[in-house]
Amino acid sequence: MKKDIIIVCITALLVALFLYASFSKYFDYAYFQRSMYNQIFPHWMATCLIYTIPPVEIIIAIGLMQERTRLIALYAFFILMALFSIYIAAGLLHVFSKVPCSCGGIIKSFDYGEHLIFNIFFVALSGTAIWLKKSKHWKRKTVNHLHFNNM
């Protein structure tokens, strides 16, 4: 029961983050587009990302809200945030000639170090939720298996 509460609290934070991030991109769409076209990747890739990142964030948030899709959505959240984190870390390490942030809302006021810490925090939260969810599932499976075998 305690694990369930922790998973729900973490999930609520993850949902809030992705809904906030996606809608802030839509609310300041011109800024988001300019920022994406100012990234290091080719124009065609920026166009693709402009049209896919916000809806993917919304889809993941919706997946997190439903029990039957929560685990897969947690993995998707973890992977997407890890990729964003790697990109920011590469920028901090000067791997690219430029790495302008395309984040919206209050997050765009972060410097790269703050943004990386913020992202790593949410990667760790999603990893924790995955671990709790998997350990809960494994325990339930083991208990059901033992119960079935003892009948």
TrEMBL record:
InterPro entries reported in the protein's UniProt record: Methylamine_util_MauE
Report the subcellular localization: Membrane
Gene Ontology biological process terms, A to Z: methylamine metabolic process
* UniProt superkingdom: Bacteria
Q: Which GO terms describe its cellular component?
A: membrane
Q: Tell me which residues make up the Methylamine utilisation protein MauE domain.
A: 4-132
Bilayer topology: Multi-pass membrane protein
Does the keyword Transmembrane feature in the UniProt annotation? yes
Keyword set for this entry?
A: Membrane, Transmembrane, Transmembrane helix
The signal sequence is none
The record lists the membrane-crossing segments as: 5-23, 43-65, 72-96, 116-132
Q: What is this protein called?
A: Methylamine utilization protein MauE
Q: Which species does this protein come from? A: Mucilaginibacter gracilis
**Upper lineage:** Bacteria, Pseudomonadati, Bacteroidota, Sphingobacteriia, Sphingobacteriales
